[in-house]
Amino acid sequence: MYQEIEELLFLSKRGDVRAKEKLLLKLNPLIISSIRKYYNRLDQYDDLIQEGYKTILLAFEEYDPTKGVKFLGYVKTMLKYNYLEKYKERQHLSLNSQMGDGEFIDFLEGFEKDPMDVALKKEESEILLKGLKELTKKQRQVVVDYYINGLSIQEIAHKLNISYRTVVNIKTQGLSKLKKIIVK
């Protein structure tokens, strides 16, 4: 199967539209298994499958065999993070969401800030800034782009002209280092 996928990829890169269609059909089970594993929403299956095809086509365009990664592995990673990102977006709670006898917004406290909370927040910010300064330039850029600027892993990879997986590794290493610094 791997050999066939590599052949279809080669033919697709040379402009063979039928090979590209066959490649998408061959990877359909991978899309479905990724949906089931990372974002199992039966009510959105058709849309999620289309997103999977879109992700594969994007992976097809961005795939660079000289980086030492197999195409199938690259596609699996792209699909995984696409659906995980979608899952993360879904976790945000709307202020109008029903909760018990009222809406979520009804349970929120006022906007007054407790002086102790303000002091703690300032101290936390200082510790975080100190920790960020101890990261490498690339780790700091990836962490800031992802958590502060709200860029996706894919957008960061494109911006820095590095592979998707490299961004994931840099982010993981940066967070691990930041955690050690903050825990001290």
Automatic annotation (TrEMBL):
NCBIfam families: sigma70-ECF. It comes from Tepidimicrobium xylanilyticum. InterPro entries: RNA_pol_sigma-70_dom, RNA_pol_sigma70, RNA_pol_sigma70_r2, RNA_pol_sigma70_r4, RNA_pol_sigma_r2, RNA_pol_sigma_r3/r4-like. CDD domains: Sigma70_r4. PANTHER family: SIGMA FACTOR F FLAGELLAR. GO terms for biological process: DNA-templated transcription initiation. This is RNA polymerase sporulation-specific sigma factor. Keywords: DNA-binding, Sigma factor, Transcription, Transcription regulation. Residues 27-89, 132-180 form the RNA polymerase sigma-70 region domain. GO terms for molecular function: DNA binding; sigma factor activity. Transmembrane segments: none annotated.
